[in-house]
Write a structure and sequence with these properties.
alpha+beta, D-amino Acid Aminotransferase, Chain A, domain 1, 13 strands, Rossmann fold, 4-stranded antiparallel sheet, Dna Ligase, domain 1
Length: 296
């Protein structure tokens, strides 16, 4: 098979996506695939069509690669691709819609609201977290502790983004559950050395400690796994997904977000979990590629 690995793009996650794309290209080449890398900074769909590949491995984080736009275009041209389809991708990328859907299924989430304009915003649940509605890698995630900080942060971020999400902040054990073609991988506990799990702590070697598998009582472990798998099915995800959650002091796993195209860099969580499960990086990429078979 000839495989196009699409990566790069124009989002805040461009550099991470390029690193993911490079790692995936190397892995698939070692497995014997004919691989070409496509930087989707421009003419993404045209480049894919011109390459005449059998399938596309999507390593494009954020933006059109993760919000369902690229998936919809590939569906239109009957080009098979890895990962979730257009609907699941769109829902997971939109943090507000994800929260609404999960609340309908009684999945634990904190109080949340949408912010669309500047002004005196009514919110009385502090501390709170403000984040862009559709961004990854913790880009521009801000904690606020009072009304003054709230207004300042909203005014600042609405200069860059059309809409924001505000949530009640929950502190506890930060966990992530990775799913590979429906198989649950070991839960990871994330412990940044300083601050929260922001962009710097995600992609800087040595900035964060990872406990794999997370030290959890069996009943809590099963609870987190079952909730993650339920979300995977609710959204109709395919291939890979990573569900991030915060385990409160009362052992309630509050969902933070769902990632349908998790990173595959040297510091990324998904490959760490797969490795503990017994998958080499090369084996993992090949298994991800098998999700293409559902579209052949």
């Amino acid at each position: 098979m000839k495989i196009a690995v699409v990566c790069g793009g124009k989002t805040n996650e461009r550099e991470v996506s390029l690193r993911t794309g490079k790692a995936v290209c190397n892995a698939l080449s070692k497995k014997g695939y004919d691989v070409c890398k496509i930087d989707c900074a421009e003419r993404c769909l045209e480049k894919i069509i011109e390459s005449k590949v059998d399938a596309v491995f999507i390593a494009l984080h954020g933006g059109d690669g993760e919000n369902g736009t690229l998936q919809a275009a590939l569906d239109m041209f009957s080009i098979p691709y890895t990962g979730s389809g257009k609907k699941a991708s769109m829902l997971a990328m939109d943090k507000f819609l994800t929260k609404i859907l999960l609340s309908h299924y009684n999945i634990p989430i904190t109080k949340f609201a949408l912010i669309e304009e500047k002004g005196d915003y009514s919110w009385n649940c502090f501390p709170a977290v403000i984040k862009p509605r559709e961004e990854g890698s913790s880009a521009d995630v801000c904690f606020v502790y009072n009304k003054k900080e709230l207004q300042q942060t909203i005014n600042k971020l609405l200069n860059r983004y059309e809409t924001l999400l505000i949530e009640q902040a929950i502190f506890g054990k930060e966990l992530t559950v990775s799913i590979l073609n429906g198989e649950i991988l070991p839960i990871i506990e994330i412990k940044p050395h300083h601050g929260f799990y922001n962009y710097h702590n995600k992609y800087t070697l040595g900035s964060t400690e990872y406990i794999i598998p997370a030290a959890l009582p069996e009943i809590i472990k099963k609870l987190c796994e079952n909730i993650a798998l339920k979300i995977y099915k609710i959204l109709n995800c395919r291939g890979i997904a990573r569900i991030d959650m915060m385990l409160s002091e009362g052992n309630i796993p509050y969902i933070l977000e769902v990632n349908t195209i998790p990173g595959m860099t040297e510091t990324s969580l998904f490959p760490k979990a797969a490795d503990v499960k017994g998958y080499s990086f090369e084996d993992m990429t090949q298994v991800i590629l098998q999700s293409v078979n559902e579209r052949l």
